[in-house]
């Protein structure tokens, strides 16, 4: 009888482990998305600075999003997994700097990070990627992809000037080794401006890879790089 109970317990553990794997590996790659704060704020919707003050004039992380090669993506994979602030306490200062929230009302950023974890992070959750590992992976990817420096080195600066979209993509590819996806938005004057940059990472979230598919986002051939 004991042997039967032990066997059933082992089977239950295996099923639980496989269910975690199914959630975590049911995607093909990550989109690592960074946004330019000047473009976020320079719209008719405006923005609110975090309670820690105005962020640095640098690209900030928007998210690390599991994606599939067919263009689909999983989301909200575990509604019971809420972000635990204690799990990321040692990352808070780095998150406030590199992953700031610009939405209104002003906040500490935790609400933004919680949203990203619940919508996207839960779909990458596994034995290897827990809450701490997810946010740490995104921070490390940002260290590897210094977009502002890459653009400045190519003479592309956040000075309200207009730049060739192809030149922006080429500058980022030159610096990172990979072709980016670019998303634009429009300001109150309907000027097309660089808003978000998409790079792709492997399912461990540790290395950049060439994007199997790039997001289809409309941009003009010349886009503005607004000040912040």
Care to give the gist of this entry?
The active site is at 62, 116, 120. By secondary structure, this protein is of the alpha+beta class.
Structure description:
By secondary structure, this protein is an alpha+beta fold. Helix content is 34%, strand content 18%. The strands form 2 sheets. Strands 1, 2, 4, 5 and 6 form a 5-stranded antiparallel β-sheet that branches. Strand 5 and strand 6 form a beta hairpin. Helix 6 packs across helix 7 (165-176). The longest helix is centred in the N-terminal third of the chain and has 23 residues, at 2-24.
Annotation keywords:
5-stranded antiparallel beta sheet, alpha+beta
Q: Please count the helical segments.
A: 7
- Report Rg: 20 Å
Low-pLDDT stretches:
2-6, 8-23
Could you tell me the mean pLDDT?
A: 91
Structural class: alpha+beta
- Helix content bin: 25-40%
Total strands: the figure is: 7
- Secondary-structure element order, as H and E? HEHEHHHHEHEEEE
Give the terminus-to-terminus CA distance: 70 Å
Strand content: 15-25%
List the helices and strands and how they pair.
Layout: H1 2-24, E1 29-35, H2 37-41, E2 60-67, H3 92-98, H4 110-119, H5 131-144, H6 147-153, E3 161-164, H7 165-176, E4 181-186, E5 192-201, E6 208-209, E7 222-225
Antiparallel strand pairs: 1-2, 1-5, 3-7, 4-5, 5-6
């Amino acid at each position: 009888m004991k042997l039967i109970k032990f066997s059933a317990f082992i089977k239950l553990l295996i099923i639980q482990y496989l269910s975690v794997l199914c959630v975590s590996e049911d995607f093909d790659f990550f989109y690592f998305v960074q946004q330019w704060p000047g473009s976020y704020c320079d719209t008719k919707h405006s923005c609110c600075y975090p309670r820690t003050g105005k962020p640095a004039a640098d690209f900030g992380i928007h998210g690390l999003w599991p994606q599939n090669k067919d263009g689909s993506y999983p989301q909200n994979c575990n509604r019971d997994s809420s972000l635990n602030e204690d799990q990321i306490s040692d990352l808070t200062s780095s998150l406030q700097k590199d992953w700031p929230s610009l939405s209104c009302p002003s906040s500490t950023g935790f609400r933004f990070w919680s949203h990203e974890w619940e919508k996207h992070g839960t779909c990458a959750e596994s034995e290897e990627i827990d809450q701490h590992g997810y946010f740490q992976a995104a921070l490390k990817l940002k260290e590897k992809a210094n977009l502002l420096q890459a653009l400045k080195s190519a003479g592309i600066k956040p000075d309200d000037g207009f730049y060739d979209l192809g030149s922006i993509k080429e500058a980022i590819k030159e610096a990172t080794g990979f072709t980016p996806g670019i998303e634009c938005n429009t300001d109150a004057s309907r000027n097309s401006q660089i808003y978000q940059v998409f790079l792709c990472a492997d399912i461990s979230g540790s290395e950049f890879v060439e994007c199997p598919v790039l997001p289809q986002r409309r941009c003009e051939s010349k886009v503005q790089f607004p000040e912040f």
